[in-house]
Amino acid sequence: MTNETATIYERIGGHDALTTVVDDLYVRIMADPELAGFFTGTSLPKLKGRQVEFFSAALGGPDLYSGGAMDEVHRGRGIEQRHFDLVAAHLVDSLKAAGVPGDTIDEIIGAVAPLSGAIVGKTEG
């Protein structure tokens, strides 16, 4: 398999690499005073597992995402675009820390950026 035919999931190192990135991402998120409050009372191990599933599914890996729809799980949480952008910036930093090349990081951000519409500003009802 050449780099051109490998999925993003395969190019970044598969499940182990995603787990490393997600663990680092949540260290960064929980250290961010603008974001940490969103996760009060959340089971971080469960959330991290879902996040690895999500990234695997989104980046061509074998895992199926078993969590809820993005708009449903984020509804009523008061998430604004700046919060989404902060998480995206932390994701970039986590990917860089894991040694993911810049062009691959751009592909990953390109895959998740469209989700802002389903995550940002969703109210109850």
From TrEMBL:
<keyword id="KW-0561">Oxygen transport</keyword>
<keyword id="KW-0479">Metal-binding</keyword>
<feature type="binding site" description="distal binding residue">
    <location>
        <position position="74"/>
    </location>
    <ligand>
        <name>heme</name>
    </ligand>
</feature>
<dbReference type="Pfam" id="PF01152">
    <property type="entry name" value="Bac_globin"/>
</dbReference>
<dbReference type="InterPro" id="IPR016339">
    <property type="entry name" value="Hemoglobin_trunc_I"/>
</dbReference>
<feature type="binding site" description="proximal binding residue">
    <location>
        <position position="74"/>
    </location>
    <ligand>
        <name>heme</name>
    </ligand>
</feature>
<dbReference type="GO" id="GO:0020037">
    <property type="term" value="F:heme binding"/>
</dbReference>
<dbReference type="GO" id="GO:0019825">
    <property type="term" value="F:oxygen binding"/>
</dbReference>
<dbReference type="GO" id="GO:0046872">
    <property type="term" value="F:metal ion binding"/>
</dbReference>
<keyword id="KW-0349">Heme</keyword>
<protein>
    <recommendedName>
        <fullName>Group 1 truncated hemoglobin</fullName>
    </recommendedName>
</protein>
<dbReference type="GO" id="GO:0005344">
    <property type="term" value="F:oxygen carrier activity"/>
</dbReference>
<keyword id="KW-0813">Transport</keyword>
<keyword id="KW-0408">Iron</keyword>
<dbReference type="InterPro" id="IPR012292">
    <property type="entry name" value="Globin/Proto"/>
</dbReference>
<dbReference type="InterPro" id="IPR009050">
    <property type="entry name" value="Globin-like_sf"/>
</dbReference>
<comment type="similarity">
    <text>Belongs to the truncated hemoglobin family. Group I subfamily.</text>
</comment>
<dbReference type="InterPro" id="IPR001486">
    <property type="entry name" value="Hemoglobin_trunc"/>
</dbReference>
